[in-house]
Amino acid sequence: MRNILLTLIIWALVQKISFGQDSTRTKYRITVTPTQFVLLDFPLSIERVFKRHTLGLTIAYRPSTKNSGEVHGGAGLAGGYKDQNFRNPMYDATTVGLNSKYYFNKKKHLFLDATVFYRYWWFDKKDCEYKNIEGYRFKGTRTERQQVVGFKLLFGRSFQPKTKSKIKPIIDLYCGMGMRYKTYVFETFDGTVSDAYYTYYKETGGGWLPSIQAGVKLGIGIP
Predict the structure, then answer these.
(1) Is 181 within 8 Å of 151 (Cβ atoms)?
(2) Residue 140, class by beta-carbon neighbours within 10 Å (0-12 exposed, 13-18 middle, 19+ buried)?
(3) 153 beta partners
(4) pLDDT, tens digit, for every residue of 2-29?
(5) Of 146, 112, 140, 136, which Cα lies nearest the Cα of 127?
(6) Distance CA 14, CA 9 (A)
(7) What pTM does this model have?
(8) Which of 53, 106, 148, 212 is the most buried (most CB within 10 A)?
(9) What is the Rg, in whole angstroms, of the alpha carbon atoms belonging to the chain?
(10) CA distance 220 to 203
(11) What dihedral angle (degrees, nearest 10) is formed by the CA atoms of 49, 55, 57, 58?
(12) Which pLDDT does position 145 carry in this prediction?
């Protein structure tokens, strides 16, 4: 929700900026995704621009901010632990993705962007606690691994402010849908794990999860 709100604010701002029509001269695009910064995720994308499409590579790193303590999340049906990785300060994460944009016109304004990515989440033997009185909860020393493979299909628009410089500023706004498959391995040492039915110390599993995507990319175009 914060990403969508930030995207709408940036969309309103860019409508007041004057934009040129020389984006066709760009051969390389280097961008970041500030809408991910609020989640402490820091992606960097590099794309090679061809006539009506691009090929790109994205890498990202998300650092952990705590070595112990409580993991705060939702409650009841809103307290799915595996769905709250970006709210979990124990996790480090790395991401690598490949994408290809298709522009609907030669001026490279409107585009369709297909992306595949792999994300790896982990932390090792951290003393932590998760409370969900109505469902899943734990307290103890934890080691966790989550692996995510996903696909996103995005529709967006590129903006390019007028400038005399050969290096061009770029703003991309986008929204779309995604699907991802996640596997996980959780181990608890010197503690307890429970939900409404079971108590256990090693958990494994996987499943599909759809998502709604919205964001903004800022960067430069290089001729």
Answers:
(1) no
(2) middle
(3) 114, 177
(4) 554 454 444 444 444 444 445 557 899 9
(5) 140
(6) 9
(7) 0.84
(8) 148
(9) 20
(10) 44
(11) 80
(12) 97
